[in-house]
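Sequence design from tokenized structure. All designs in this work follow the same two-part layout: the structure record, then the generated sequence. An example of the structure record is given first.
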């Protein structure tokens, strides 16, 4: 620390990267904190680190005396953006070269404004795991020195350690995108991930409840604060985040429609360990935004929910939680039913009632399986579920569509056998 300065600073390490943390007071005398990434890995030369820290301190001093630094919002932890030129100098081992893991952090920060918050959070977790591996196995390796063999070793070690092929695929996707950007920026000539091999993915088989099991599930949630949540998920096949994100302005009782246009996600990555609720207007894909007919059963339950909301808000007055006014899935005290609570409470209820284990997300699969079983075309199911492409729907549920196979058999029999009355379906039964 430097007591002679009008602010204090420390030099912690976060996610393997050296940081500069400034503590100071704003214009109102309130304590503030700013995090500045040096871009340098923990194991770097003291000379290089000192030069970078001095540069950061000089910039912060300028911002402080000009009043720029002291005008930040209360409670907000900010990172000073690192320019490409500064990053290039700070993470280099030699002139003009980037450190690999530092570049991954830089790429992650670069794409942040272009993707959804939850997507960025997912990328951050993956990059953190990649960084830890390369910092241990290939410390201080430069971006241009990373080979396909190194990356392949990472994939192999990850898979052999017990991680799934799907997890390795996620690792690959992030490294591939980062190198694709590096090629685009003329930092490297080729993308080494294109030479690697991935473990074979196991075909995913969706788990779902049949009609009788769903009726048992509805009975188990009768009178529960999550009753409406479970019904909406089962009837519409909504994702957990989509159910939580429903607002009254998305429901048109006159036109009898319900529009899926926003989501609620939980974040525990703030460092406090507490759940932070984030509302996003951007869904998983463009196709996820959809307007569907209002099913009479759901319409009746929504109207009842609206009545109870008005009743309890008047009854409890100031004791009624107003933070999430406008959202549908709240309890009688106005508390939002969060994604994390949905998953946890769903497990508790099905276990208590001795129902077959199922994830809450599998209600989405249950909805799809019932649609397939009752002859609804795959294209219509795609639109109902909000899948990005027809192939996604077909890959998940085509194995359930046995009736179409019977129809195909009957058709080919009529053509080749010349028997228009052939009914293979009876034999199949």
């Amino acid at each position: 620390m430097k007591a002679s300065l009008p602010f204090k600073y420390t030099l912690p390490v976060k996610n393997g990267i050296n940081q500069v943390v400034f503590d100071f007071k704003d214009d109102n005398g309130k304590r503030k904190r700013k995090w500045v990434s040096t871009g340098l890995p923990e194991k770097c030369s003291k000379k290089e680190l000192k030069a970078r820290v001095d540069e950061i301190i000089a910039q912060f001093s300028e911002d402080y005396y000009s009043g720029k630094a002291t005008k930040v919002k209360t409670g907000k932890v900010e990172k000073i953006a690192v320019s490409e030129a500064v990053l290039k100098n700070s993470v280099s081992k030699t002139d003009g070269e980037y450190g690999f893991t530092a570049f991954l952090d830089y790429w992650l920060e670069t794409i942040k404004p272009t993707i959804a918050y939850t997507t960025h959070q997912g990328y951050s977790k993956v990059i953190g795991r990649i960084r830890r591996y390369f910092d241990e196995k290939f410390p201080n390796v430069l971006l241009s020195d990373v080979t396909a063999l190194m990356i392949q070793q990472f994939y192999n070690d990850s898979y052999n350690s017990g991680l799934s092929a799907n997890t390795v695929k996620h690792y690959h996707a992030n490294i591939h995108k980062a190198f694709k950007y590096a090629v685009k920026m003329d930092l490297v000539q080729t993308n080494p991930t294109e030479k690697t091999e991935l473990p074979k993915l196991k075909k995913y088989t969706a788990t779902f409840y049949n009609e009788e099991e769903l009726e048992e599930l509805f009975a188990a949630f009768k009178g529960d604060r999550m009753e409406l949540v479970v019904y909406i998920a089962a009837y519409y096949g909504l994702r957990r985040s989509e159910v939580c994100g429903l607002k009254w302005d998305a429901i048109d009782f006159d036109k009898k429609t319900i529009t899926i246009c926003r989501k609620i996600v939980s974040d525990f990555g703030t460092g406090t360990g507490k759940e932070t609720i984030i509302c996003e207007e951007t869904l998983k894909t463009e196709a996820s935004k959809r307007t569907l007919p209002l099913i009479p059963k759901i319409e009746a339950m929504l109207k009842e929910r609206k009545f109870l909301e008005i009743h309890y808000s008047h009854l409890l007055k100031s004791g009624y939680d107003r933070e999430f006014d406008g959202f549908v899935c709240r309890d009688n005290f106005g508390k939002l039913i969060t994604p994390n609570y949905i998953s946890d409470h769903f497990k508790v209820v099905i276990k208590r009632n001795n129902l077959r284990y199922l994830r809450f997300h599998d209600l989405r699969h249950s909805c799809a399986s019932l649609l397939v079983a009752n002859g609804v075309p795959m294209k219509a199911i795609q639109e109902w579920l909000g899948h990005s492409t027809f192939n996604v729907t077909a890959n998940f549920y085509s194995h359930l569509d046995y009736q179409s196979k019977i129809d195909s058999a009957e058709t080919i029999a009529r053509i080749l056998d010349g028997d228009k009355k052939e009914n293979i379906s009876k034999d199949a039964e």
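The radius of gyration is 28 Å. We note this feature because it recurs in several other targets discussed in the main text.
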